[in-house]
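Exercise 7. Given the encoded structure of a 284-residue chain, write a plausible sequence.
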């Protein structure tokens, strides 16, 4: 199966309505260029560090403008549209960082809530505590689609290879990493992490990213990317501003890569032993 995929690069602001309009314009552009699977970045709906202001525009998924716009676009353009994520009000009063996948008939195929929270302190003074605002997910997801099996992840999830391995073992041929990577961490790790996840699982990786200086003051790395199962970067964007990144995906390449390096089949169970040389002797 061969199809064209697109990763949409955005610079989302604090206004969900404007972000929805920007998303729609870019998605239409990608569809006009032949993409039938289109992915948007993490927090497509809004990047807003002010928690009070965020809650003022927060909606449940029934009333969310990004969800409604995406459902309509999928149906209008006859595409699979993957909203990398947007903030959604949960029934219990908490917030989910939630991805959505819509089918060409507008049907909601799957959702995925980001599992790993970005709670870090960086060298440049940046400090992030996603867990203070968001409720982490607890379930990995793989969706069986007409063109292949797709595994979900969001941004910081990329640093947890066990998530991607579990999806690959469940049949995922396409792994997704929509993101809003910080500039500091992106410069150091973004490409190598994406290529590593592709190589170690023999899978395509599609990663739509936020890029540039945002209204809330943060700066994101961009460089939206599509990587093949051998680790080759098929297409990528720059580090600032909007972009539509396109590549042809040939699912047969997954079988070929896994045939050459069958590490998914060759993996073995093992035990772990720890030894100590605290007394200065030779560890046995």
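Solution.
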């Amino acid at each position: 199966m061969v199809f064209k995929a697109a990763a949409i690069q955005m610079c989302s602001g604090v206004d969900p309505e404007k972000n929805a309009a920007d998303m729609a314009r870019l998605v239409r552009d990608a569809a006009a260029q032949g993409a039938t699977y289109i992915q948007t970045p993490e927090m497509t709906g809004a990047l807003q560090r002010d928690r009070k202001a965020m809650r003022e525009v927060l909606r449940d998924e029934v009333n969310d403008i990004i969800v409604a716009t995406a459902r309509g676009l999928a149906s209008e353009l006859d595409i699979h549209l993957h909203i990398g994520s947007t903030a959604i009000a949960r029934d219990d009063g908490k917030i989910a960082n939630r991805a959505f996948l819509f089918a060409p008939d507008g049907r909601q195929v799957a959702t995925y809530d980001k599992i790993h929270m970005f709670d870090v302190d960086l060298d440049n003074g940046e400090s992030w505590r996603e867990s203070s605002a968001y409720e982490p997910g607890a379930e990995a997801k793989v969706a069986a689609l007409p063109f292949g099996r797709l595994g979900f992840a969001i941004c910081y999830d990329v640093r947890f290879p066990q998530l991607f391995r579990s999806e690959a073992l469940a049949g995922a041929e396409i792994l997704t990493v929509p993101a809003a990577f910080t500039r500091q961490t992106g410069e150091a790790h973004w490409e190598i992490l994406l290529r590593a996840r592709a190589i170690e699982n023999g899978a395509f990786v599609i990663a739509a990213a936020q890029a540039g200086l945002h209204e809330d003051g943060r700066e994101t790395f961009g460089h939206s990317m599509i990587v093949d199962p051998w680790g080759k970067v098929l297409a990528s964007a720059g580090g600032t501003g909007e972009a539509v990144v396109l590549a042809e995906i040939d699912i047969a390449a997954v079988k070929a890569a896994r045939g050459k390096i069958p590490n998914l089949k060759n993996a073995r169970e093992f035990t772990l032993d720890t030894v100590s040389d605290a007394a200065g002797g030779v560890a046995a």
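Remark. The chain has one domain: 2-266. Students should compare their own answers with the one above.
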